[in-house]
Structures are given as structure tokens and as C-alpha cells.
Amino acid sequence: MRYALEQNVGETDSVRQARGAFMALIPDLAPSVTTQFGSVKTIPSLIAGLWRVFFVFILTVAERFRADLLNAPKGVRTGEEVFQRLLDEVYQEQESAFWINKDRGDILTIALHRFHRLEQSKIERAFPDWKSLASRKSGRQLHRRLEDWSRTSGLDADWCRDHAVRFLVPLLFDGQLPWTFLFPDSDPLSVTPYRGSRLIDIWRFTARHVTADVAWSRFDLAVQVYGNQDLEPFVFRWSDLSANLRELHDDLRDFEAPYWNYLRETSAEYKRRVEIDFRIYCLQREITRLRNVREQEDWRQKFELKNQLAGALTSFKTKLNDYMANMTTKKKTAEAKHSLHSVDEKRSLAHHLEWTVRVQIYGEKVSDIAKSANVKDPAVSKAVGETLRLIGLKKRAAVRRGRVRGSKNKLSPTAAILRGLGR
Predict the structure, then answer these.
(1) How many domains does the chain have?
(2) For residue 155, what are the domain limits?
(3) 178 and 243 together in one domain
(4) Is 256 in a helix, a strand, or coil?
(5) Dist. CA 395–CA 250, nearest whole Å
(6) Interatomic CA distance for residues 317 and 339, integer angstroms
(7) 359 shares its domain with 328
(8) What is the pLDDT of residue 421?
(9) Measured in Å, how far apart are the chain's first and last C-alpha atoms?
């Protein structure tokens, strides 16, 4: 989506649009592996890494909404206690015979469906962003886990962690994920191929949701700026031409172009586009006239072959400049009233976002990208640096292997509960 003007307030629409596109590219640019079924995209490790974080999110939601999840919520306080009580309730709701030849996967499937009692919009309001998690004791573990995840994934920015929170909510309400626990020998904490495909689908959905939000934001801005104004289209009337040209073109209809939408187009872009359309219109008219001449029986005799519309372009440009002057006055008024500022067009942003994902997320060498794109290394480095600054993301440092600083490499409470189901 092209922006010529946008509001200079908070996160701008063009930045949010670029961020959404960046996130959407991550699964698209994942490396491929060759299998017996052909080439298959791998599941990006940063998306797979959120699967374990998802169980921490479940415990956080369970603690916050225990009264809605449990039939008997008294006596439990922490997320672990609520989730364990939930598993017990699920087990006790069925007759003993029901559980014959069933395992922990069946219990988890039913338990996760219990979360669908909740309203998704209510969860979204309870967990609006990453920073809000730290305001409550129950959310601090999830807050830390998302911070660790983002730093090791090359996504060390608050907006990336916010994206992860927005990803976890629809994941909780996905109708297909609970059934993945029914697959035999499926470790609940592992990312199976089908489970991974669901994670990728929801990741893409979350990224597209950003784009949809921007589209609504642009619509709302247009309503604010244009309101009920009856913006006039540009009209070039042949009646404004000189008398001799009017006689030649008295059968021509007026040329009309939609109004200048200065939120989307610069004046230079609009003028060039409209002039091209006018030239095409005139040429089509002239082609029609010459074809009619060619079809005459006496076409070999002297006919006027000179372009009869050649003199119209000067008058057209004069009228267009008058129209643009009037619209520019309205544009300046809107800029002052709505805090609008110009947006630099980035014609190669799509390519630069792709290069940035390949470098920042997948660690590809700049030289390899430059070679494949047939450009020089500095061009790729500059483009990646500018794109990272645009979306507000720090350049990824070398990945450090080993235990995350501050962790103790012990089994998490979530994992302990899930492992216990197999006993």
C-alpha cells in the first residue's frame, strides 16, 4: 500500500505495514529440505520455539481465569494448580471405561477445549501486549520467556514480543491444535509436522492481521481528512479550447480523472498519471479517426493526416495546474489540522525486507544474497541496515550457544505436569 501522507503520531501506518510484511516473510523464506515427497519448507525455529512458551501462556491464562475454567475453583491459586485441577476434572467427568486404551493425549485434548469456554476478545483485553504481562505476578514468567525468545531469535524489540503475544491468543483458540495430542507417541512439547503447520498458519494470520489493522487505520484517516467533502475530480472540457479546435472536436466527451487523493499520491505522481491517461485518450481518439480515413473509398486522395489533438496538450496542462493549485491548498490545511507528514517512497522495500529476513533471521551471508541478486555487497548491507531502522529492530548479534543466562536448566512446571500425565 502506497502512502504519500500519514499521521506523525506513535507507530506510523507505513512502519506497521513494513513490520507486518517482515513477520509474514519469516515462514516464506524458511530453508527447504528434500524428502521422499519432494522439497519441503522447514518450520522456522523461532516459531517452533513459541510452542513451549505457549504452555507457559496456558498457565498464565489458567491462573487469571480459573473461575471460568474450573467447575470447582476453590483451593487453587497458581496456574500450575489450576491446570492440574483442570486435568483432574476432565478425567473425573468421564466413566472409567472411557479411558481404556486412551492416554495423556486424550486428557490434554479435552482440557485444552475447556479453554474455549473463554471469550477470545476477553483474553485479548487481558493480555494486550508484552509489557502488560509484568504488571501482574502471574504474567512475569511469560514476560521473561518471551524476552528470552525474542533475543535468541533476532527479534529483540518490544513490537516483536507484542507480535508473539498476539500470536499466542489465537493459538489458544485454534480448533485443530488440541487434536494433535491424539497422535500416537506424540510428545506434547514437541513440534510435529502437522502441529508446526498450524503454528505457521497462525503466525501468518497474525502478521496479516497487522496489515488489516493498517488498512482500517488508513480508511479512518481518510474519513477524518476528507469527511463529507465533495472532492471534485479533474475535468478537462473540450469547450475550453480555442474556437478552431472546438470545431474539430465538438463530438468529444470531456476527459475526467478521479480526484487527487493526496493521502496516497504525491502531486508529481498524480499529474504524471493523469497526463499519461490523457495522452492515451487522445491517441486512441486519433487512431479511431485515422482508421475511419483508411476505410474511405477515396482514402488515397488528400486527407488531413496531422494529429488534430496535438494542440490540446498545452491547454490540458494549464487546466491541470490550476486544479492542482486548488487541491494543494486543501492538502496544506489537512496537514496542519491532522498532523500529517510526507512519507518517503521505498520502491524496493519488498526486496529489502526479504534480504533483511534472510540476514537477521536465517543468518545468511550478505555476499551470498548480493551474488544471487546481482548487486554489490555494500548495497545489500545498506538496504538491510535501513530496513532494520525502519521497522525498529536491532541488528542481530552472534547467537550464543548454551544455557540462557539466569536459567537453571530445570524442568519447567508445565513440562512436569505434562510428563506426569504419562505415568
Answers:
(1) 3
(2) 7-224+401-420
(3) no
(4) strand
(5) 64
(6) 31
(7) no
(8) 56
(9) 54
Per-residue pLDDT at 243: 60
Cell of 300: 488515397
pLDDT averaged per 10 residues, the chain (length 423): 84 93 96 74 92 94 94 90 90 77 80 92 96 93 96 96 97 89 72 88 94 91 86 86 59 86 95 95 83 68 60 88 95 94 90 97 95 95 96 76 48 60 47
Shared-domain flag, residues 186 and 269: no
* pLDDT value for 282: 85
Report pLDDT for 404: 46
Q: What are phi and psi of 7, to 5 degrees?
A: -75, 135
Question: Residue 41: helix, strand or coil by DSSP?
Answer: strand
**Residue 15: its pLDDT value, please?**
94
Which single residue is written with the C-alpha cell 544474497?
369
- DSSP 3-state assignment of 195? helix
What was the pLDDT predicted at 247?
58
CB 255 within 8 A of CB 236: yes
Beta bridge partners of 140: none
Question: 58, 108 in Cβ contact below 8 A?
Answer: no
Q: CA 82 to CA 64: how far, in whole Å?
A: 10
Q: pTM of the full predicted structure?
A: 0.84
Q: What is the DSSP string of 20-44?
A: HHHHHHHHHT--EEEETTEEEEPPP
CA 181 → CA 52, 85, 114, 161, distances in Å? 14, 19, 15, 27
State the pairing for strand pair 32-35/38-41.
Answer: antiparallel
The residue among 141, 25, 31 whose CA lies nearest residue 79 is: 141
Q: Which residue has the cell 527479534?
A: 155
